[in-house]
Amino acid sequence: MKKILLATVLGCCALGAAAQTMSTTHMTQEKDKQGAALPSPRMETSAMLGKAKITISYGSPSIKGREMSTLVPTGKIWRLGANEATSLTSSGDLMIGTQHVPAGSYTLFIMPTETGWMLAINKQTGQWGLTYDESQDLGRTPLKSATLPSSQEKLSISIEDIKGGMGQLHIKWGTVNASTMIMAH
Fold first, then answer.
1. What are the backbone angles phi and psi of residue 180, rounded to the nearest 5°?
2. Fewer Cβ close by (within 10 Å): the C or N end of the chain?
3. Which segment of 18-22, 57-61, 150-154 scores lowest on mean pLDDT?
4. Which residues pair with 86 in a beta bridge?
5. pTM (predicted TM-score)
6. How far is Cα 84 from Cα 14, in angstroms, rounded to an integer?
7. Sign of the CA dihedral 174, 22, 28, 103?
8. Which residues of 95-110 are buried (b: 16+ CB within 10 A; e: fewer)?
9. Residue 77 — φ and ψ, nearest 5°?
10. What is the DSSP secondary-structure string of 32-81?
11. Model confidence at 30, in pLDDT bands (50, 70, 90)?
């Protein structure tokens, strides 16, 4: 009887720990005034890092045969998605790469450079994706770049490899896999 009770308690603890380290993504299909689906659906990625709940909401554009260099031009700030600005909300303080990010809501942008992508974390929120005020940047952090084995048509943002209070933020599009560490503290 004690062994069954112990096994049940351990199983419940394992399920609880797994639930705290899972990342979920879901899509909201927005429609235009005529009721047709917009070409870049709104996506949302959520994860628990330690006790901090993190949610990233973004428009997921498709490449549609275009060149990445025209979609994400080097030296120009990019809205990291389509339509409304990409938002990050966290219930706890974070470290994203080298940048301390207090609990709250932010807008994410990408600055492509000759040496890689920089993630800009901006304090201005609620704007359309093309509105960017550099003076509102909380800061920027470099992203590590890797090449995907095959091209990914739609932009995706995810939090992967979660272990306790840390994981990896991944931005994947085309053959680019840009990532950095994300940690609750």
1. -160, 165
2. N
3. 18-22
4. 108
5. 0.83
6. 38
7. negative
8. bbbebebeeeebbbbb
9. -65, 140
10. -TTSPBPSS-EEEEEEEETTEEEEEEEE--B-TT--HHHHS-TTS-B-SS
11. low
State the pairing for strand pair 104-113/116-122: antiparallel
* Residue 1 exposure: Cα atoms within 13 Å on the Cβ side: 0
Which tokens hold the place of 49? 């890092």
Show me where the domains of the chain are located: 2-184
Backbone angles phi, psi at 99, to 5 degrees: -105, 125
25 has pLDDT over 70: no
Beta strands in the chain (DSSP E): 23-28, 42-49, 52-59, 86-90, 94-96, 99-101, 104-113, 116-122, 137-142, 144-163, 166-184
- What integer pLDDT is reported at residue 20 of this predicted model? 45
Vertex 90 angle, CA 95 and 112, to 5°: 55
d(CA 116, CA 62): 21
> Which tokens is 92 given?
């706890």
Task: Report which residue type is found at 7.
Answer: A
Short-list 107, 86, 102, CA closest to 157: 86
How many other CB atoms are found less than 10 A from the CB of residue 130?
Answer: 11
At 93 the pLDDT is 98
The rounded distance, in Å, linking the Cα atoms of 24 and 5 is: 31
pLDDT digits (tens, 9 = 90+) for 111-140: 999 999 999 999 999 988 889 999 999 999
